[in-house]
């Protein structure tokens, strides 16, 4: 079934005919909401050409987390780049040209196919639902250069414990990823390989995309050509994270210093948010703003871990000062040391290069005390799962 929201009755009729099947039409946004509430299994809402873009944007953003399998497709007379970008960023799956019936039908079909795969009734369930037990940890900071990639790489190696556990390190800094460089891996296989098979990616396929690094650690590297990032959408990342969770004990996600769609997809699927800050006023301010954003997005407080990197007692900023400003406890202090840069320049992560170093010790403590603890359910997956079990 499809909900079609379009104020003009005549236009609504035209598109209802085009889409075919069981279409319920709404003349107002309130009506569309009411129709959606009536059917918790509804998977597609089509916004007609006479609906305000902002309504579609708000609608998609509202249901992005609470109903991840619901697709929103927007029909427009003109496809302006700004409109497209805003819509897609908010969670609209496709924007189709009203004058191109083939592309409208294709957009609806793609959205419905994705919805099917995201919900229990989809193809994956029939083929055997993977047991997604791995823990997803996203390492994030709104600022560059504070040590995200250093922490993500060393943490992945530490958690693998020489091969006792399986860890997938994903480089989501899709335009400027440094994981390959830090691990001295040749990016022959990257996440870009997932683009042509985005609608049918499976475990076997994923195994051909990762680069083995050391016992227990595989890396899914960033594309070599930065423009490929544009072809990687939120659904693909959600899919990859769901799949990797079923294949690995831990999935560590390294991120760019921006709050983009890729980061949101990772955060939505994460059990733990590892937020990196340095003891600098600007980093503190950025982290405070980020924590406020997390509140709005409803990312649970108990799943937030703040890691203070380059902790330096000589700076005069005490951890107590920082905790007071941020109103959140600091989980881990990683000391400042030029040996970190030396290890990065040598291409050997410090936990391997110098396992007894205080930086390696701090990362081990973080891994064993906080990340190895009992798993919790990630926000996005929780809503997905509860919908699945209801069926
Ligand atoms: N604990 C530390 N002590 C000293 N230098 C560090 C430390 N952590 C990171 N660095 C330096 O900061 C640089 C940036 O780290 P990186 O992990 O690439 O940051 P991000 O991924 O957040 O941009 C590294 O090249 C390294 O030289
Ligand atoms: Mg980085």
Automatic annotation (TrEMBL):
Top-rank taxon, per record: Bacteria
SUPFAM superfamilies: P-loop containing nucleoside triphosphate hydrolases
Domain AAA: 135-305
UniProt cross-references to PANTHER family, sorted A to Z: SEPTUM SITE-DETERMINING PROTEIN MIND HOMOLOG, CHLOROPLASTIC-RELATED, SLR0110 PROTEIN
Pfam (any one): AAA_31
Region of interest: Disordered: 367-391
Protein name: AAA domain-containing protein
InterPro entries membership: AAA_dom, P-loop_NTPase, ParA/MinD_ATPase
